[in-house]
Amino acid sequence: MSVPPQSLPREPRRQRVGELPAMLPTRYGALQGALSFLALPLYVFLPAYMTRAASMPLASIGALLFASRVLDALTDPALGRLADRALRAGRGFGLIVAASVPMLGGFVLLMGLPQLLHEPRHPLAFDALLGAALALTYAGFSAASITHQAWGTMLAAHDSARARLFARREALGLLGVLLAAVVTQLGGPRGDVLVFAACLAAALWLLRRVPRGSAALAQPVRPGALRAALAPLRQPAFRRLLAIGVVNGVAASLPATLVLFFIRDRIGAPGAAGLFLFLYFSCAALAAPLWARAVRRVGAAPAWLGGMLATAAVFVAAAALHAGDSGRYALVCAASGAMLGADLVLPPTLLAGLIGRLGHARQLEGAYFGLWNLAAKLTLALAAGIALPALAWLGYTPGTPSRGPLPALVLAYCVLPSALKLIAAAMLWLGWMRPDSDPHAFDTTHRRQAQ
Predict the structure, then answer these.
(1) Domain holding 402: CATH number?
(2) Entry pTM
(3) Three-state SS at 353
(4) I need a surface site. Which of 88, 168, 299, 390 has the fewest CB within 10 A?
(5) pLDDT of 48-83, one tens digit each?
(6) Cα–Cα distance between 112 and 132 in angstroms, integer?
(7) What is the pLDDT of residues 99-140, one digit of tens each?
(8) What distance in Å separates the CA atoms of residue 99 and residue 108, rounded to the nearest whole number?
(9) CB burial class (10 A; 0-12, 13-18, 19+) of residue 258?
(10) 44 and 137 assigned to the same domain
């Protein structure tokens, strides 16, 4: 007697080569949610908090933050080398746990310092403690971030799998940003500390089940620490990708620096700033998986090129907005947020693939991401250094409505970022994607390999 086909037992689904286990992206990416939660108060809300809660002069907090951030950026290559050694020894998780101690301790001190030492007679003691708290928090944050990023390149073998992994990581990171915005408004500094501690503990609990590196996976690179930390700069393809990332990063950082000024003085809707930002980050989180699918269909470099061109078009459209155009500006926030997903997912996908093609997989990932993070942090400083003095030179006064077709604020927020995006797109096409460019930069067969 024959057995009906539907009654036959189903064979277990086999995992395709290069495919990620179902829960791996979430277990790996959860830490980005915690780190991004910390980043919002650390980079955005801290100056206003210290001026309000501790009556700290704006010039003092500005100088202290600048010094702390420059020091933090300059230590990234060394932290990248430390991450490489830990990952090769299978101790990446241990390094992240160790980095979490000063990160959490420094953040607790930052948020509690105005209540702990708020004495006008001891400004130097307050500044010294604030500087120490910033140094602890930044050091732990950077060490954990670089190790986490380098670890991710070891978990996937192809661009499509890497893009899916990084898309989940960045989507969870954006959810962390949204959560931090809500908690900061409702719970204040104490709420920030408690929720961050809970998120960090949960993320580490998930991360402990992620596969770890091993010293047997690759022969270690043996040059001295400084030479190894700077080894990626000897690769022309990496220098080319880094240059593209810097130009693109400045283009992205300019609107981020000026967005609140634009909402208040051009759109005339300061009360809706929180809603605009929520819409922006929500669309970025929702779009991140779509950019991972785009990698599977067209490849990481063509997808990033499309994202750059689309972003330039969005900000050109934003230049036509005037006071009262809140609805249209909401569309700009949604569209530019969706394009942000490309900047978050695709550059690390390209960098991870390049590391493998250069023969440095499981050896120098930390060095590559340490230098990449150094450049990213410097672009934030460069954006502020370009935008704010340029606006002052062009006659813009904060709090003054920006009327007319192309006032200084519109030039800095819309036109200049669009121009820089087009320059970055040209650099990507001419120096990375064309067949006659560096053979390590863009493999024309990688689309088939990714599939």
Answers:
(1) 1.20.1250.20
(2) 0.78
(3) helix
(4) 390
(5) 678 778 777 766 777 787 788 888 888 888 898 899
(6) 13
(7) 999 999 999 999 988 877 655 556 778 888 888 999 999 999
(8) 15
(9) buried
(10) yes
